[in-house]
Specification:
homodimer; 305 residues; mainly alpha; two-stranded antiparallel ribbon; 2 strands; 1% strand
Chain lengths: 305, 305
């Protein structure tokens, strides 16, 4: 399918970003509702913990990026649902494990008690584990080569060279002096890898991409992902638990290096804006088909939670 | 490929079970060695923990079952390697998480300190998480429909309806009166699901199976998997940490219902033998092609660790 025909099928300019993102957030909520186990069955408590930690909250940034990227290649949203859900399931699992007492020991997430507080630590551990399994189960539902390829991409992004590895680098770096290059490397693994996977998984659902188009989308995702983290650091200082839905001021309390501790608040905000510009520039070649990705980069920088 | 040609290619009767299993154990060790991350790289500590918990130990029961099942359908061992490694990676992750302080809080595994004792709890948590990701990464390496299908099968077996769900049922059941039917159901999820996946993943590497052949192999795996757990319960009572490589007497200390607490030692041993017979009967139709599966069922019941 050509970009032109996708733009005919999706007259994006007729719908505001707010309406589009709300529609997609509702869409992913109903996909997640469907793929998560019902609260019944032998492991009912586990199913309940998985649903608790995944449904009814969250900005759904990764699914939104996947849907937005799929518009670049003219894919129907229905083709993106499995990948979008898998991304959010991986993200939800990582939040549960990240909040555990042996990690950040946090009690507030998405405006409600963390999973191990609402249930118990063992159940929360298993809920994270089972959400990771479920992500690959959902992604592998269609038995074809593209599904296998998507599984490999997501597994790479979640694993030792991506998100989990980034968590470890973060643990190792806590309380240790660092510089901006090291911090950037850390976040390119911890949050960047999954955000890049989101863009690639979405884009792959439509027309095939040329190698330089893939690289351009990856440059967009790299910049947008880092901007997301820089803004997170600013919000950790400027935000409140009420607006963030999670504990504020956590980084300073844990003596973690952040973009704010390295650049100051104003420096970090300027960095976020320049990353947004980089993200936009990477999309130049795609014209109007990339409008949602551009709007997402704006929203990532302007958000207040 | 027909069963007959597989028997020509694999003259199994010329090699003893001991030699065959040793060769396959060495084979899976070298596959795991290759797919696990090197100890270098940004998350070196995480990679080291993943290697520590996976290499140089374990009976490799699930890989052995996969290789043995693949002989039924005449597959080359090389076609089974990815599935066998993925199974063992999932198993290794589950052992790490199962040993954590919030779960069984165990300090000895495979004859050495558990991962969280040798490293730390946060690193062990992440090592388990990253091993699960790696399993799907390895399984999805070949971008084809069979790989996607294998990912779905493994993810189902590892998730809320399988291994992780069984762990939760086990948590919920601790200290609660139970009967043999409930205990059997628990173990059909906790250990049975992955053992059944091992047999199916192996068998799928060769000639296509008829539906009733698939069912027969599943009946074998169900019986062999349960026998494995019954013998585990006997060894927990009769074995020592020195031979088991893990803490003995754990179930009684944790007030867990076991096949020994329900049936007595002699009753549990008799149950294991009758399950072995069931497993053998399920293989009747496969003749000599199933010799390794039959020998594995024998070994599962006769093992001392």
């Amino acid at each position: 399918m050509s970009v032109a025909s996708s733009r005919t099928a999706n007259p994006v300019s007729d719908v505001t970003f707010a309406a589009w993102s709300r529609e997609r957030q509702q869409r992913i909520e109903s996909v997640l509702e469907r793929v998560l186990p019902a609260g019944a069955g032998p492991a009912a408590r586990l199913a309940a913990a998985m649903r608790y930690a995944t449904l009814g909250g969250g900005k759904r940034v990764r699914p939104l990026l996947a849907y937005a990227a799929s518009e670049v290649t003219g894919a129907d949203a229905a083709r993106v649902d499995a990948g979008a859900a898998a991304l959010e399931l991986i993200h939800a699992y990582s939040l549960i494990h990240d909040d555990l007492p042996c990690m950040d020991d946090d009690s507030l997430r998405r405006g409600k008690p963390t999973c191990h507080v609402a249930f118990d630590v063992a159940t929360a551990l298993l809920a994270g584990d089972a959400l990771q399994s479920l992500a690959f189960c959902v992604l592998a539902q269609s038995p074809d080569a593209a599904a296998a390829d998507a599984c490999r991409l997501l597994a790479d992004a979640a694993g030792v060279l991506g998100m989990a590895g980034g968590q470890q680098v973060d643990l190792d770096a806590t309380g240790v002096a660092t510089d901006e290059a090291s911090l950037t490397r850390l976040h390119s693994m911890k949050t960047g890898a999954l955000i890049r996977a989101a863009v690639q998984l979405g884009a792959r659902c439509g027309r095939p991409l040329a190698a330089d188009e893939t690289r351009a989308l990856d440059a967009f995702a790299t910049a947008a992902g880092l901007a997301f983290q820089v803004v997170d650091d600013v919000l950790d200082v400027e935000g409140s638990a009420a607006t963030l839905g999670k504990t504020a001021g956590k980084d300073a309390a844990q003596h973690k290096a952040t973009f704010v501790s390295l650049l100051g608040v104003d420096g970090a905000k300027a960095r976020a804006r320049s990353l947004r510009d980089e993200a936009h520039t990477a999309l130049d070649r795609f014209g109007g088909a990339a409008v949602r990705l551009r709007e997402l980069a704006d929203w990532i920088v302007l958000r207040t939670r």
